[in-house]
Design a protein that fits this description.
This protein is α+β, with helices and mostly antiparallel strands. The protein has helices at 3-16, 36-47, 88-96, 108-128, 167-183, 219-234, 243-251, and strands at residues 20-21, 53-60, 64-71, 74-81, 136-140, 143-147, 150-151, 154-155, 187-188, 197-199, 203-205, 212-213. The protein folds into two domains: 3-154, Phosphorylase Kinase, domain 1; 157-251, Transferase(Phosphotransferase), domain 1 (Orthogonal Bundle).
């Protein structure tokens, strides 16, 4: 069976399960995304009845593609990590120091499956303490389902592309998110920048796969990097605080290093 026939069979089968395919061209970029492993994971999620509609791509990247979907008439984001092109070596380095995933070894698929579970876990920790992140809903293999942050199937813009009235206020909000992430969720984002913050009336933190727990050996280094990225961006628009002052506020460590 050719790839096109396989896609058409897939579309027929999920529609037979009651899932609407909202965009006939949804898989234009699926040749290296919807492989056999991914299709099996999607089937399982459909069987669990956590997807009721699948739409077109919201964003595409080297590591993952995100598709619009629905569950009970609510928008969801279907994030699919690309098994063939994701940087599993970099993923393995983040996983290696994380006690939650210290036992993960081996194959590209194994690393990516663990990464998907890790992002689900990190989002859950952040969401549970009230931080504005997409609520995680389910995962299977290399697919993560989460709340869709947007309107009318259009995602909220990245901070770098958003219209912001008061950069100073948003800067303070982001610093407070970093403090709450550290003190309440016990996580460091580890890749925070204007690319991984969405903005609509307030900032939202996204892309939590690489976030690490505080006992990760690189957590202090990652925290400093996040602070520098945020200061670099906001320094274009407002005065920013001293780096070590921010470290102390986030960690609550007084004059000590994190």
């Amino acid at each position: 069976m050719g790839r096109r026939d396989e896609y058409e069979r897939f579309d027929r089968e999920i529609e037979a399960m009651g899932v609407r395919v909202k965009d006939a061209d949804m898989m234009k970029v699926r040749d290296d995304v919807f492989d056999e492993v991914t299709l099996m994971a999607l089937y399982k999620l459909v069987h669990r009845k956590v997807i009721s509609a699948i739409g077109g791509p919201v964003s595409t990247g080297k590591e993952a593609n995100i598709y619009y979907g629905e569950h009970d008439n609510q928008g969801i984001a279907i994030k699919i990590y690309r098994i063939q092109t994701a940087n599993f070596k970099a993923m393995a380095e983040y996983l290696a120091g994380d006690r939650r995933f210290a036992s993960v070894r081996g194959s590209r698929k194994g690393i990516i499956f663990a990464w998907t579970k890790k992002e689900y876990s990190n989002l859950a920790r952040a969401h549970d303490v009230g931080l504005p992140v997409p609520e995680p809903l389910a995962f299977d293999r290399n697919i993560l389902l989460m709340e869709f942050l947007g309107e009318e199937e259009i995602p909220y813009p990245q901070l770098r592309l958003a219209e912001v009235d008061d950069y100073r206020a948003v800067y303070q909000e982001v610093l407070d998110y970093m403090r709450r992430l550290y003190q309440d969720a016990r996580l460091v984002h580890a890749d925070l920048s204007e690319y991984n913050i969405l903005y609509h009336e307030k900032p939202y933190l996204i892309d939590m796969g690489q976030a690490v727990t505080l006992d990760h050996p690189q957590a202090p280094t990652f925290l400093i990097r996040d602070i520098r990225n945020i200061n670099r961006y906001f320094s274009r628009y407002c005065d920013v605080q001293d780096e070590q002052e921010i470290v102390r506020a986030i960690t609550g460590n007084g004059d000590r290093e994190p």
